[in-house]
Design brief:
This protein is mostly helical. The chain is built from six helices and no strands. It has helices at residues 2-23, 31-55, 59-86, 100-109, 112-140, 144-170. Helix 2 packs antiparallel against helix 3 (59-86). Residues 1-24 have low confidence and may be disordered.
Length: 171
Amino acid sequence: MLARRSVLFALAAVPVAARATAVLAVDALPDARFVGFCQTVNDFEIASGRLALAKSTNELIRGYASRMVAEHTEAAQFLVKARAEAGVSYAPDPSSPPNTVAVIQRLNSLTGPEFDTAYANAQLAIQTQAHDQYGAYSQNGDNGALRRYAQRMVPKSVEYLEYARRIAAGH
């Protein structure tokens, strides 16, 4: 029985270990670019979430959107504090994450199932990038205050990414 539990535990740990390795495959951004990246993610999640709440009738999409608005509003407040403590200025990187302004404009032009599909795919893309960056910065970031922010966001990003995968697969 003990051997069986050991095997089951080892098998359960494989996906976790694989995910941890994937996180480290991305280099941590420099401090100011990390702040810009995080702010862009927070702003996008709030704006796209509000748009989804206004345009979608799909309960899965609406539930996800509602959570993203609330949680990224809170994350943005913590980022402001971490940025102030770190003494780092905001430096958005137009090449990363995906061009969120264009994505918001595209979402704004869509309705019905087309909106839901585009929203779900946009969430999957940005949550994948956010998860990777939070993981990389939490391990290798230069600034302690920003590293603590990233460490706070890593477990949340795992949840967000799993939820994004679900809405992309089953909206």
